[in-house]
Amino acid sequence: MEENISSAKAGTISPRDAAWREQLRQEKNAKERTAIPRATMPQLDPAYRITTMLAEVNQGLSEEQAVLEASRCLDCPDPGCVTGCPVGINIPGFIKNIERGDFRQAAMTLKETSALPAVCGRVCPQEKQCESKCIYNRMKKPPVAIGWLERFAADSERMSGESASPAQLASNGRKIAVVGSGPAGLSFAGEMSRRGYEITVFEALHEIGGVLKYGIPEFRLPNSVVENEIDSLRAAGVKFEADVIVGKTYSFDDLMSMGFEEMFVASGAGLPRFMGIPGENLIGVLSSNEYLTRINLMGAGREGYATPVLHGRRVAVIGGGNTAMDSVRTALRMGAEEASIIYRRSEAEMPARVEEVHHAKEEGVKFLTLHNPVEYLADENGRVRAMRLQRMELGEPDASGRRSPVPVEGAIEEVPVDLVIVSVGVSPNPLVPSAIEGLEVTRRGTIAVDDDTLQSSIPVLYAGGDIVRGGATVILAMGDGRRAAAAMDDMLSGRKN
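Predicted structure:
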């Protein structure tokens, strides 16, 4: 096993791996592999799944499906899929282990670089990253289902009850503090723990997991999956403390006086943005952050929980990202008779994953694209009763390359609603940056860091994820955690002055 791990890290193939890969090649040539159709993900029926918050929509590949899908991989000598992965997973390695039926070794290969493979296999936008670099795209064929195979390997390990934890160095006794238990913090914690550091993760909320718990519904990412990943980190020696607000409960100086040598800040971007239009303060207009947190983390709507949350018959969600899709699909499960996405660009410009848009449509969500709210109207009780929508058309591309939406003069319509969920982006919570004297921040309120090392203006403080990016995917945040861990370890071990 150590031979496999070291060779994977070095980018080479061990003699044992070379032997079984050659055997696989002989058993199935490239022409036979490329003729295999891509697997189809089993899913719950839309009519049933909108009746429950807890049933995961994608049911996962069967063993037979996974082995067959893995056999589509051509084991490219220069695999583009690896370069497309922000975490740098040895993708051909774990896939070929699935093909030969060694699911535990597949999970081991994943965990050499990823602390959250079961999470990434569900929510990572593989179609824009690793799968977009798959050689099958050049053949005009569907890429290998890398994300689904990642989920399969991680789920197989979990359901087997046998841990596939990679090798870990003995403790060096050096203490590192992590602020925030979202994907960046967990990735950093896992990487540094493997390198022998004593890691404590401080979380402001009452449950560990950050955005993985409060932001993503269980029908897309079950809490049990997140808990299992966290338990793996606990087993590796990572300590977690909930209900700790760094900047309030403990100051930066407090943590340093407690023996922590360095700190990694991964406090996320939980401050919701609004549009600044009339009526946003009405009853029934709230952010997606508040809505999803009340339901996902605080149990609103579930038996045994008293957490209040607003319900609506006609629900409108403003935005076109994954959080907007999560919100509108949640509203359906909370009893909405009609749930709509309001988006100012066309569907082609939506940043949400294609899969999430597809699932939303299957479940009956209406899409009102090229429309933008300009005002919310109240009833006699001060609750939103309608919204005024400006029809848009696409003009010239903006700085991101997407065509800018332009109002169509005089094209305004009134649409009845009784609940509006605003999902137009987030900003970093200013609490942690403002609580640390001398810490440099950007105009956007994010922590300014070195692009390569993620080290801040305070040498002992590194940062990554949304508190640096302002908003990103789970896998990009995890990539930040790994990069910061490598840079911090280099500094502490004396490899870099």
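Summary: The mean pLDDT is 92.
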